[in-house]
Automatic annotation (TrEMBL):
EC class of the enzyme, as a word: hydrolase
Keywords: Carboxypeptidase, Hydrolase, Membrane, Protease, Transmembrane, Transmembrane helix
Residue ranges, annotated region (Disordered): 1-34, 46-189, 211-234
NCBIfam families: PBP4
GO biological process terms, semicolon-separated: peptidoglycan metabolic process; proteolysis
This enzyme's EC code(s): 3.4.16.4, 3.4.21.-
Organismal lineage: Bacteria, Bacillati, Actinomycetota, Actinomycetes, Pseudonocardiales
Descriptive protein name: D-alanyl-D-alanine carboxypeptidase/D-alanyl-D-alanine-endopeptidase (Penicillin-binding protein 4)
Positions of transmembrane segments: 238-258
Length: 697
């Protein structure tokens, strides 16, 4: 055996508590000496067999561990049973079988020693864990041990073994308590040792607690044994793996909780968006929108004149005319030469939109068609006057003209109706008459590449721009021809020039523009010149007039006059306001807006003109006013002022509505002539912002 397998028990641990010495009369139980191997000097170390006094009603479960058998010299070893005591045979004298108990280690105070340290190859127990000597068993008949004889070399004799059940798994075994007289005290933890004839010792598997046999003929009591538990190393490995998994999970959760997105979602204290102060108490919300306070106190003329004296007298405004009207009553609160006609620039669009809303149904849509041509395989694009067609793919709404019709939709209808057998696409632009530019326009306004205007023709895509998503994109020189070529390419045909479609031609495809109210909204928000001049022609068509610049202007004024507006001093040559020959007094602009802003039911014209207010850009928020009202002097008007802008060289105009501090709706029209573009605009914004700040009583 290896040297570290030498058990180091105390050399003088003898049990002399019972009986007389060997050979004495009376036959008291003598101390039994068992040979132990491994001493360097050849001496035989012996262990005493203690007598254990069982406690009543005690319970004892042997501690059995399964370990590998150590390497031993190759000597004939009989097959010993693991469930019964064995009788070792010495060379000269056989010795009766005995059950050997190792003295238990008495724990210090309440601590239980780690029995793993007493396994083979472990260090010798310390003095604190020395083996205790139990008291002799009371009332136990003394047995006389057979005399020791000289050892003889002979084969060991096998004892009759009791029939015992095989060991069970820990979860299945149920250990029944043995008779009290045969079980040691539950307070003692003994580790049995099996003595083999070759003077080698092994941990016994199931001999703990079995009494020594009186004789071979006596049957030893049956003892149930507990199955061996799993090695602690495996438990430690499982515990280590479990702990590692838990640590990794906690680390992962901690790392996730540290990310801003997760911490914000969970509302953790370290979240970047965590509130820095107390959460405010919820406030009541009124879901009813309130209009202007028509019963509130209106500004007085004197108060308003005092408030506007400075802003309206600014030198940056050049020559200023204007008026302020109380929308609830129609009373004029402030006036400065409002009947003097001045160049209105794009505020001319107010007249065109008002005339269209008064004369046309608000759901009116402009149609664009493709019809069957006279020749086989020929189709004709019939222009109906809609410049808002978009070349963007189906499913993509136009950012310039929300709700506009798609060119791809028109092409898809034609392919389906014709079976795809198209060879030529022609263009019919006969709807509009007269020149494609108006009197008073700058010659550059219709030159390709400018951003303001393109030749006014009855059909085009995206207002004639080369980029369908940008309001400031350059316009093309001939937008109708460009659209015809685009459609021909989609139909895998050729563009065949202009023609006039037969009146009874078969319609292969048709698309329609946004309704009039939405069309007018886009026109006012962008101050779109093309849409304004096309709309003037639609008014002319509705009135039976010629759809030209002159016919559109005349039809616009006729509608307004018929509606009861005083147009003294008004002269217009287009619907866009690009003509510097246009003249409109501020009074006319304010009267139209005042009717649109009047209380419901007060004027029958109000219901038709109300969409005009919805299309006005919001100061600092939308349309042509989106980038204005950023200066401190005009910042008070942000979100409160809504107005239509007008700009030409030396001309700046602004007309719209605003709520004052008392919730009163005020209508204003301001026209500046001879002013610088940037300075004039800023000065007009200050005047409008002053109206918002004014209680002016």
């Amino acid at each position: 055996m290896p040297e570290n397998d030498d058990p180091r028990w105390p050399s003088d641990d003898k049990d002399t508590s019972s009986g007389e010495p060997k050979g004495a009369k009376g036959g008291g139980e003598a101390t039994v000496w068992l040979p132990m191997s491994g001493l360097a000097n050849g001496k035989t170390e012996e262990l005493a067999v203690p007598k254990v006094t069982p406690e009543s009603d005690s319970w004892f479960s042997p501690v059995v561990e399964v370990e590998e058998e150590p390497d031993v010299p190759e000597t004939p070893t009989p097959q010993w049973s693991a469930f019964a005591p064995v009788t070792p045979v010495e060379p000269e004298e056989p010795e009766a079988p005995k059950t050997v108990f190792v003295q238990p280690v008495q724990p210090r105070q309440t601590e239980e020693p780690d029995w793993d340290q007493f396994d083979r190859g472990a260090a010798t127990p310390t003095r604190e864990h020395e083996l205790a000597r139990p008291e002799p068993l009371p009332q136990e008949p003394q047995r006389q041990e057979p005399q020791r004889q000289e050892p003889q070399r002979q084969e060991p004799q096998r004892q009759e073994l009791p029939i015992q059940e095989p060991p069970r798994r820990p979860e299945q075994s149920r250990v029944e308590p043995p008779p009290p007289a045969q079980v040691p005290s539950a307070t003692m933890h003994a580790r049995p040792v099996r003595i083999e004839p070759a003077e080698e010792h092994f941990d016994s598997e199931a001999t703990v607690g079995i009494q020594q046999l009186e004789s071979p003929s006596e049957e030893p009591p049956a003892v149930e044994t507990a199955s061996a538990p799993k090695p602690k190393k495996r438990k430690r490995k499982v515990l280590l793996i479990t702990s590692l998994v838990v640590v990794l999970l906690l680390a992962g959760m901690g790392a996730a909780a540290a990310t801003p997105k997760v911490s914000n979602r969970l509302g953790l204290p370290w979240a970047p968006n965590a509130p820095k102060g107390d959460i405010p108490k919820p406030a009541g919300v009124t879901r009813v929108l309130h209009g202007p306070d028509i019963n509130g106190v209106a500004p007085t003329k004197a108060g308003l004149a005092a408030a506007l004296a400075g802003p309206a007298g600014a030198a940056d405004l050049g020559t200023l005319t204007g008026t302020v009207v109380d929308a609830a009553t129609g009373d004029v609160l402030w006036d400065k030469n409002s009947t003097t006609p001045l160049t209105p620039a794009s505020t001319t669009k107010i007249l065109v939109v008002a005339a269209a809303l008064l004369s046309l149904d608000h759901g009116t849509q402009i149609s664009t068609k493709i019809v069957q041509g006279a020749d086989p395989g020929t189709v004709i694009l019939v222009a109906g006057g809609d410049p808002s067609l978009t070349s963007l793919p189906l499913g993509t709404d136009s950012p310039l003209y929300p709700g506009a019709a798609h060119v791809d939709d028109l092409v898809a209808q034609v392919k389906k109706a014709s079976g795809g057998k198209i060879s030529k696409v022609q263009l019919d632009v006969s709807l509009f008459k007269g020149p494609t530019s108006a009197k008073g326009w700058d010659p550059e306004d219709t030159v390709a590449g400018n951003t303001y205007m393109a030749p006014v023709v009855p059909v085009m895509a995206d207002g004639g721009r080369n980029d369908p998503k940008s309001d400031h994109a350059p316009r093309i020189a001939n937008p109708a021809t460009a659209l015809t070529q685009k459609i021909a390419g989609k139909l895998e045909a050729q563009s065949g020039g202009t023609t006039t479609a037969p009146k009874d031609a078969k319609v292969l495809g048709e698309v329609k523009s946004q309704p009039l109210a939405e069309f007018a909204n886009s026109l006012l928000q962008l101050s779109d010149n093309m849409l304004a001049d096309v709309l003037a022609r639609q008014i002319a068509l509705a009135k039976g007039a010629e759809p030209s610049f002159a016919g559109g202007a005349a039809a616009t004024l006729d509608v307004l006059k018929q509606a009861g507006f005083d147009l003294t001093g008004v002269q217009i040559n287009d619907g866009s306001g690009l003509s510097d020959q246009n003249k409109i007094p501020a009074k006319v602009l304010s009267e139209i807006l005042a009717v649109a802003a009047a209380p419901d039911g007060k004027d029958p014209r109000t219901a038709k003109l109300r969409p005009l207010l919805a299309g006005l850009p919001v100061a600092g928020g939308s349309g042509t006013l989106e980038k204005r009202y950023g200066d401190p002097a005009s910042a008070a008007g942000r979100g409160w002022v809504r107005g239509k802008t007008g700009t030409l060289s030396g001309v700046n105009t602004l007309a719209g509505v605003v709520l004052d501090t008392d919730g009163r709706m005020l209508v204003f029209a301001l026209m500046s002539s001879g002013s610088d573009q940037n300075k004039g605009r800023a000065a007009l914004d200050v005047v409008a912002a002053t109206l918002h700040k004014c209680g002016c009583r």
